[in-house]
Amino acid sequence: MALNIAYYKNSKLTNTSSKYRFYDFVQKPIEIYVFVDPLCSECWSLEPYLKKLSIEYGRFFTIRPIISNHLQVVNYNQDRHHTAEHPALFPSISLAVKAAELQGKNAGKTFLRKVQETYFLKKHNIFDLNILIQCAEESELDIQEFKNDLSSISAKNACHSDLNVTNEMDVMDTPTIVFFNEQIEEQGIKISGINSYETYVLILKKMLQKDPIPSQKPPLEDFLTFHGVAAHREISIVYDWTTAETESVMKKLQLKQKVKKALAKNEVFWKYSQSI
């Protein structure tokens, strides 16, 4: 299958998109813009690859999540690619993610993950404000600040900035990833859809102009402790295990009562003991 790869001029970015860079405390050479719709199943499927890339090569790049769920409304009647139940309410999800991001980059990423877990795994109504607040609590956000920011100008401006960045980079679908090397004035690389992990690594190495050694993966229990919930497929991807190998390892942890098995949409998930 041919890859949907495009080259993108770094100089095309405007001051609007550069607002995201105030989060940087440690400058890394590569900046990766990840355009996602929180309620898009393919964006959820991209998560394991991003986790693995961050574990092995995260010392070289910073991820910028760009919420682009307006594309779901635009594309829904064109190709039925997404299955939104309440497209008119999507901006509230965007505002919630942006409100969380106002408490820090990591806070925003954690909240986005909780929203996706709640929607895809727990099957809860993510359009319910109480559910969003519960996600914020589980993400350890300042709840009063989060509630205030849900209707703040700052959160609305952040949503508008995401829309501008999406338009500037000609992103027409989610998920889409754009790689930039901040230290070299050359074209970025844009790739859409779900691709093999090797493809993302090759693009990263091309942007770095070198072939770095991947960092060592953390022990599985450390990974589960950090994330709380992990899909069977996700564990297999991150640790380069077959489905059977993952099953064997997780059954041993299950016997030790360190994990609990759960099913959602015919997919197996594992909850770490602290999350049970």
How is this structure best described in words?
- It is a single chain.
- With 276 residues, the chain is α+β, with helices and mostly antiparallel strands.
- It has a 5-stranded mixed sheet, with helices on both faces.
- A hairpin with a 2-residue loop joins strand 7 and strand 8.
- The protein has 11 helices and 8 strands.
- About 12% of the residues have low confidence.
Tally the helices.
11
The total beta strand count reads 8
Radius of gyration (CA) equals 19 Å
Please give the alpha-carbon distance between the first and last residues: 41 Å
Main beta sheet, described? Answer: 5 strands, mixed
Q: Helix and strand succession?
A: EEHEHHHHHHEEHHEHHEE
Share of helix among residues? 40-55%
* Mean pLDDT over all positions: 83
Decide which structural class fits the backbone. Answer: alpha+beta
Strand content: 15-25%
Which regions contain 5 or more consecutive residues with pLDDT less than 50? 14-25, 72-91
- Write down the overall geometry: globular
How do the strands line up in the largest sheet?
1-5-4-2-3
